[in-house]
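It is time I had a proper look at our fold encoding. Can you supply me with one protein entry, sequence and fold together? It will help me judge whether the discrete encoding reads sensibly. Leave the record below and I will have a look:
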Amino acid sequence: MALATIVIPTFNQAAYLPACVDRCLFQTHEELELIIVDGGSGDDTKDFLDALPGRIGGAYAEPVVRMDALGNVVRERVLTYPQNRRVEIVRFEHDVGPTRTYNEGLARARGEYCTYVPGDDLPYPHMIEELAEALQRTGADFAYADQDVVEDDGRVHRRMTFPEFDFKACLADWYHLGVCKLYRARLHETVGLMDEAFSSANDYDHYLRFAMAGHRFVHVPRVLYGVRRHGPVRPTGQHTPTRYANLLAESCRLAQRARDFLDS
């Protein structure tokens, strides 16, 4: 089974990061590496990351496993977390910007496959396993799946289903690949990492360059991810009003680049 790397970029997401990290650690794909990159948080993120290695190695539960011959309930101490994960933590003291935070993790990826999961999102348990299977089965370079948009209380705001891959529909009309993805890390060798000139639509630019270079995409028609909405106030990440406006502006530039590519 091929090693897959999940990069978890985070910045001031202490309220959400523990759930995100747990969802990544408990993926059903066996060979897994996590690289958590704190881009200079000023909240409680540092405390969580300091305690994380000890928690993974020492947190336990005592579930009931059987009843003995005398009718006594027997419990057994078991470690809570999977112990076959590689976990690397990268920290910055000051805000280095979102795209550099992603790149610092992607540059360290040792897996045959890689992806990133923002520190406030919720990948579903079979995400890596099913996307890796699709890459292996089809020989494609990039796999993407459908996703839920999730409120902070866990309720589903809406479901997003994406089209089967078509350059025009997925990249020139607008960005319709979503956040749930896994791709072959070797694509970095030909296309490079994310362009740090883009602070919001960095994934759109990156995957557009993958497609323009001729790499193959495959859609997995399964809901494998929950992307946080954060409600109407949208206080964090790409959802703050200023950053969302920038996301739309950068995305318009990239959609036009994709259209120019089709017309060339």
In short: The two ends are 41 Å apart (CA to CA). The longest strand covers residues 217-228. The chain is about 35% helix and 25% strand.
